[in-house]
Write the C-alpha cells for this entry.
Amino acid sequence: MVSSELRTFLIGAAPVLASDVALAAEDPSFDVELNQEALTLMRKSRELVELTATSGKRVYGLNTLLGSGRDTAVEEKSLLAYQVQVVRYHNSGVGTYLDRAAARAVILARLIGFSRGGSGVRPETAVFYAELLNRGVFPAIPREGSVGSSDLTQLAAVAAVALGEGEAFDADGMLIPGAKALADAGLQPLVLAPGEALALVSANAYSVGVGTLALVRLRHLAELADVALSLSLETIARYDGGGNLSPFSLAIQAAKAVDGQRESAAAVRRLLSGGWLEDVRPEVSVQDALSFRAAPQTHGAFRSLVKQLGTALEVELNGRGDNPLVDLDSGQMMSGGNFQPMQLALAFEGLRLALAHVGISSERRIAKLYPPQRAIRARHLQAASSGEGLAQEELPGLLWYSAAGLLAELKFLAAPATLGAPTLSADVEDHSTLAPLALQQLEKSLESAEKLLVIEALTASYLLLEAGAAQPLGKGTGAVVGRLADVLADRPSAPDLVARARVELRDAVTREFLETGEEPW
C-alpha cells in the first residue's frame, strides 16, 4: 500500500499494485516499511527452514549445490561460507548499469517477494533490503546476464553489495566499492544464514520490477496514441474533407465487445468534444483510410495487452515464485518451477508486436498529412520568388523520414525474443523464458513508438496552426495544439523539437486524465 502524503510504501499481506511499485521506485523520497503481519509471516517461514535444515532432509540450495550439482550435499560446516560463494558465483552480469529507478525497482520487487513468506529469509534480512532503499544505497546492477529463469545475475549484484562486496554508485554517480556504500549509509554488511543466498538471487525481480516502470510508460503511450490520432483527424478534416467520426460512435463501439477499443474511441470523442468535427458535415468523406477508421481497433488491442501486462506483473508481485518454496500450509520445503515467468515474458512479446501495429497506423497517417504540408511549402517558395522573401518553416520538412525509420525499427523489434535460449547447466536448465531480453526489446520499442507518435502530433499541430482558427478545435486537441504552438514558435532543431514536444505531451496526457477523473487502468 502506498501513502503519497506520507511518502511511504507499506508492505504487508495486502495485494501490491504494479503502479505503486513503479511510483515508489521512481521517487527515492519514498520510505519502505514492512508491517507486523509481513514480519510475522517471514518469521514463521524461517522457522520452517531451520526445522527442515536440522531434519537431515536434502533440500535444493539449502544443503545442496545448485544447477547440475543439485544432488550433491554441502557439509554443515561449510554452509555459511557457501552462502558467500553462491552470491559471488552468480554476480557475473555484464553490460551497462541500471539507472537508479530501475535499481530501486529490482530491490523493491525482491523485498515484496520476501514478504510473501515463500523464500524463508529471516525478517532481519528483509528489513536490511528495505534499509538499502530507505538510505539511498544504489547498487551497480549490470543489465545483461539473465535468461529469465530467475534474474540471477542482477539480484546477485544487489546481494553482493548487501554483503559488503560488489559495487555501487555514490551521490555523484561515481562507482564505489559496495562496502563503502554501506558504510556511507550507516549499514553493516549482511551475514547470510543457510539457504538465504539462493533466496536472495532466485527470483524475477529485474523482469518484474523494471516491468512495472515499462507498464507506466505503456499506459501513457496508449493515451498519447489517441491524442495523436485525434489531432490527425482534425487535420485531415480541414485539408482533405476527411475526419469522419462515425467509427468512434457509441453505436459502432457497442457492436463489438472489446474493452480497449471502446476506451480508445471514448478518448477520441472526449478530446474532440466541443469542436467542429462533432457537427455532421454533408461534405465529409463517407469513410476515411483504415489508419483512421480502424484506429480504435488497433489502439484498443494495444490497450488490452497493456492491461494483460499489468495483470501478469501483479501475479508475480503477489505470488510466491521461490525455489525451493517454503510452504507453511504443508510444513514442507519443495522444489517447483514458479520462477519461470512465462506469462510475463509473453506479455512483453505481444506488446512489441502491438506497438509495431500502432506505429504502422501512425506512420500512414503522417504520410497523409504531408501533402498539405508540401502545399504550404510551395506557398512559401512562391512568396520568395515574388520577392517577398522565403518564410522560415516551423516544422522540419523531413520528420516523415524520421517516422519511417522509427517504424522500421519497431517492425524489427517485434521479432520474438523468448525462443532463443540455449540449454544450460548440463542440460538441467533446458528451457528459459528470456523475459529480460523481451523486456529490454520492449523498452526500445517504447522509445521508438513514443517518438513516432510525437512526430504525428507535431505534424498535425503545425498544419492546424497554419490553417488558422476558422473552426473551433476540440477542447482536448485545442489544448494540445496550444502547448505545441509554443514549442514550434521557438523553431528548435528537429531533435530538440521532438524532445520538448515529448515533455509537453506527457504533461498534457497526465493533465487530461487528472481533469476528467477517468483512469481506465
The beta strands are 2-3, 8-11, 31-34, 94-97, 138-139, 142-144, 167-169, 175-177, 325-327, 332-334. The longest strand covers residues 8-11. The chain has a mean pLDDT of 91.
